Amino acid sequence: MQLSHFIDHTLLKASATPKDIVKLCNEAKKYNFYAVCVNSCYVSLAATELKISNVKIASVLGFPLGASSQNAKVCEAEQAVNDGADEIDMVLNIGFLKAELYKQVQDEIAAVKKAIGNRPLKVILETCYLTDSEIRKACQIAKQAGADFVKTSTGLGTGGATENAVKIMVDEVGDSLKIKASGGIKDAATVKKYIAMGVSRIGTSSGIEIVTYTKKDTDEHTY
């Protein structure tokens, strides 16, 4: 198993500079990560840096609160795609979900999916703010809206991925949607654990440490 192929190499800090994004892209090429995950203002820069590579570009939208208007999210998605995004990671409207405004949540996800066409749409649930039943409901809504993935976290909430949240997501929609675990994932053992549970993608800013440690560990056991 090549862990790098599961990893979205991520930099979403407010303080990230263009120089930091160039570095991120160079690292993604060097370590053969599946994608970089960046804020939408940096999609065009990432597209330039990665044009002669197999590394995909994922852009977040409505990030990190999910509380932008539907029109704003759609416009951001369209701009990101125009700038070169291959995938979109959108934060659903958490407040609407908790208020049981399910139609509004579903309509918003469907509108973003329509805007990006056949590109993968990952819906960030921000599970740290949700009950188990709300996680299940969010998964059902994402599926009904035509999303391709459900994703645990932004990495900027009160908590990141947990085994409990991932298990609920896999049990609820793992037969029809892919699962992305993100937030607080810093070591190879955790990555392997989530992959074994059924996760298809890992979002992390610790990708280099994860794959370097794995290679070192493998080499040590060769002798």
UniProtKB/TrEMBL annotation:
Positions of the catalytic residues: D89, K151, K180
UniProt-listed CDD domains: DeoC (cd00959)
Pathway membership, UniProt: Carbohydrate degradation; 2-deoxy-D-ribose 1-phosphate degradation; D-glyceraldehyde 3-phosphate and acetaldehyde from 2-deoxy-alpha-D-ribose 1-phosphate: step 2/2
Gene Ontology molecular function terms on file: deoxyribose-phosphate aldolase activity
Pfam family, one: DeoC
InterPro entries (UniProt xref): Aldolase_TIM, DeoC, DeoC/FbaB/LacD_aldolase, DeoC_typeI
EC number: 4.1.2.4
Transmembrane segments: none
First-listed, main subcellular location of the protein, grouped into a coarse class: cytoplasm
Cell compartments where the protein resides: Cytoplasm
Keywords assigned by UniProt, alphabetized: Cytoplasm, Lyase, Schiff base
Catalysed transformations (reactions): 2-deoxy-D-ribose 5-phosphate = D-glyceraldehyde 3-phosphate + acetaldehyde
Gene3D superfamilies reported for this sequence: Aldolase class I
Keyword Ribosomal protein: no
Family: Belongs to the DeoC/FbaB aldolase family. DeoC type 1 subfamily.
PANTHER family from the UniProt entry: DEOXYRIBOSE-PHOSPHATE ALDOLASE (PTHR10889)
Function: Catalyzes a reversible aldol reaction between acetaldehyde and D-glyceraldehyde 3-phosphate to generate 2-deoxy-D-ribose 5-phosphate.
Protein name per Swiss-Prot or TrEMBL: Deoxyribose-phosphate aldolase
Organism in which the protein naturally occurs: Aequorivita iocasae
